[in-house]
Automatic annotation (TrEMBL):
Gene3D superfamilies: Dihydrofolate Reductase, subunit A. Pfam families: RibD_C (PF01872). InterPro entries: DHFR-like_dom_sf (IPR024072), RibDG_C (IPR002734), Riboflavin_Biosynth_HTPR (IPR050765). It comes from Terrabacter tumescens. Residues 4-173 form the Bacterial bifunctional deaminase-reductase C-terminal domain. This is Bacterial bifunctional deaminase-reductase C-terminal domain-containing protein.
Amino acid sequence: MQELLVDFIASLDGYGAAEGWPGWWGLEGPEYLAWLQQQSDDSIVLMGATTYRLMSELASGGEPGTEVLAGRPKVVFSTTLTEPLAWPNTELVSRDPVVAVREMKVSGNRPLTTLGSLTLCRALLKAGLVDRFRVGIFPVITGSTGTDRIYDGYPDVALDLVESRTFDGRIQLLEYIPKLLSGPLGTTKPTPIA
């Protein structure tokens, strides 16, 4: 069975973006960008329509770090987009993403990872399909301008830390194995997701 990694970047206060701020809050440094370049593995990148529109626009504008995504296989789940898609190596899937990802995990030959796509990630986590959860935390609080609160609507989840790293002396990368909770910690036993 193929592994699914949910991968987010966030401000310290849990926002995925902020009005008026550049990508990566303008804080991407050389170590972080080099690490992104190394992430050009053979995994399939999963995303929703909103993330597709944003990232393909950033890529076409030459945003640093997006060039690594051009050659990677991508699947966008959408009932509003139509083919042909402008971003290379992108497949459009218009059916239920939970069903499609479950099938991809069982019969696919490549690991899966997400890119943004809060609604998609929330649905995959609730369905018990997520094997690992990774977040890059950027050292900024965007309480006034932050958009896309990442964890709103998520179920309660216990996270077992399996890796941590610091880039450029300021960006934290944390990787966890998630376990769904049916109540507060200590009152129930965590259930492994995948």
